[in-house]
Every structure is written in structure tokens, then in C-alpha cells.
């Protein structure tokens, strides 16, 4: 069996969110990384259990050439008030691997901060589980150098609610706020903090 990959989908009150974006990434990974030629439709494979239809859950789809496991986990938003910069010029997470050992190793070095902000070749990439977005007083921006281009990021870019540009450590002073978006948190529900709360 090939290396396991994962799709994490927001399930709120029985509704699966951003499914077209998850399907698109799922298709690309199966074709380009796993060499699959068949089509597997997530909407046909995922059935939300009755006991998971009254709250917020994280739907985890584990797969290689075929779907190996689908599970629903209760989700609560973490409080994130401080980010620790972690520099690593060799880390690679181009695909959403189930094995997050290298990311977890960086996360363990956060000290008394709540999360990390990974910098690769002086460019801002991602936090432990999210794509960062920065507010300049007028618009939201996200780095053009993510380790993993998330589905929420893709949706917000396509809707024109987010713009993309190169953001280095030296650029942080151009922004006032930083938020963290992922499949379960968008611009309305993401943790938000002052850029000054990024520790270098």
C-alpha cells in the first residue's frame, strides 16, 4: 500500500463544507501522486452518521489508491494567541500526508506559544495546521509559498476574499493582524491576533 494521505472536511450539523475543493485536491493527488486513473466521488463515499448531525465534527478521509477509512471526530476550536517562528529550509508537505512527524517535531518547539509559524528560505509558509492570512488594514493576504495549499485558501482566493503575494519575515511589519485558516475555520471563525504576537 502506498503512503497514506488525508482529506479533512468540516462537517457542521450534518453538512459537509467546501466539498468541491476537497474533491478537486483528492482527484489531483490520486492522479499525480498515486497514479490512479479511476474517479472516486467523495460525496458518494461519505455518509454522516446520525449522531454527528447536531454539532461540529472533523471528517477525516484516509486514503491511498482507495479510501481506507472515514471517521468523524468532535471538533473544538483551539485558542491561539501567540505564534513561535520556526525556521526550516528542507521541510516538504506538498501533499496532505497522514504522517505529520516533521511538522509535529517543529510544533513541539513552540515553547509557551500556542502554535508555530513555519519559515522556509525566509518565506512565510504555514502554521502547524493552517494557512496564515495577513491583514494590511484594507485587504487579507496569504503567502504564495504555502507548504500545503489548503481548500479554504483555494475557496477564499476564488471568491476574491483573499489575495496572494510573497511574504517574508521582513514583510511582517506591513501587516497588523494575522489569522489562521483551514478546512474548519474561515475568515469568520479563524483565530485572530496582532502581528506583534509572532515571536521570532
UniProtKB/TrEMBL annotation:
Instruction: Quote the SUPFAM superfamilies the UniProt record gives.
Output: D-aminoacid aminotransferase-like PLP-dependent enzymes (SSF56752)
Q: Which InterPro entries match?
A: Aminotrans_IV (IPR001544), Aminotransferase-like (IPR036038), BCAT-like_C (IPR043132), BCAT-like_N (IPR043131)
One Pfam family name from the record? Aminotran_4
Q: Name the domain of life this protein comes from.
A: Bacteria
- Per its record, how is this protein called by name? Chorismate-binding protein
Which GO terms of the molecular function aspect are on file?
catalytic activity
Upper classification of the source organism reads: Bacteria, Pseudomonadati, Bacteroidota, Bacteroidia, Marinilabiliales
Q: Which organism is it from?
A: Maribellus luteus
